[in-house]
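Closing statement on the acetyl coenzyme *A sub-project.
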Amino acid sequence: MKSLMIQGAKIIATGSAIPSSSFSNHEMSEVVNTSDEWIFTRTGIKERRLLQGNDQSVVDLAVLASKKALNQVAMDPCQIDLIILATSSPHDLFGSASKVQSQIGAFNAVAFDLTAACSGFVLSLVTASQFLQTGVYRNILVVGADALSKWVDWSDRSTCILFGDAAGAAILQSCSFTHNAILSFQLNTDGNYSKYLSMAYEQDISPHPKLNIYQGYFKYISMNGKEVYKFAVFQVPLSILKCLNSLNMSVEEIDWLVLHQANYRILTAIAEKLSISKNKIISNLHKYGNTSAASIPLVLDEAIQNKKISHNDIVAIAGFGAGLTWGTIIVRW
Ligand code: ACO
């Protein structure tokens, strides 16, 4: 791949937002036939946050996470040139990024949604870094936000126990070539396996009475958990290795693994395959479950607030999910 990089890009701030209502495994066992023991041992999840009631949407979470990131660096929202909202559960199928733009007052920013399920934040970071490294824009807000509680089948115990709602944001800024922090990326898609994880469009069985047009609706999340599990554990380590190879870096140089928070067993299996110590895995999925596009910025923000990640640390960020899509970014913090 030929790089047209003329300047660098770095992450200068992060922020995150979660709904106020937590929902424990015990409470889940009152909705479907499951138990805290089953959920915790199979996934590592103890509780998740859900948008309950009528008053908050995925856009509200995205706005709050964005404002926190802006406040962290006291940035005027009018300095943002581009907003990319990674979401697969927008409030409007035409896109929700423009609502984030107006609600945070980023009136100079172009805004669009990017749909790539749990890989959405990684793909959005890479997209943003391209605009920065080619000198097109200076400040970009990348938000990962999902409310999959709106899209799970609450009678399907194999999926509804996994997901939570959240948003996370990062502000990327261009910088001199020598200070570039987004060192490399590696992205993949394999549509042959899209059937393993989908929120598919379902067509009505009969057309409009006067037109030969079939309309329809979107179905709940459907997932083949075992296949997704095998795919993640096989492909993600390869992606991380390819990304490191492109930089002539070794696995030992990774200080932190920030993976999509799908299932703690997946995270440890990936670390084991790479011979990376479990202590380098950053995880908070026991508190939030799988928050799809929000999971990486949510855990990243927490690690930064807790001062776990320090200046110059090498962070391997990898996302994976529906598509199937997966990819890695190596960042020097
Ligand atoms: N509570 C109790 N029992 C359950 C539950 C539950 N919530 N769910 C399933 N079971 C039962 C099944 O019915 C099955 O029973 P059986 O043996 O009598 O048939 C048994 O438990 C085992 O079920 P499996 O599906 O084989 O369980 P598995 O060990 O594979 O764990 C899980 C399921 C946790 C979903 C796992 O496959 C997984 O984590 N897969 C990856 C999911 C993932 O990461 N998705 C990413 C989504 S990213 C995105 O893009 C949105």
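DSSP finds ten helices and 15 strands in the chain. With this model delivered, the sub-project is considered complete and its resources will be redirected to Aim 3.
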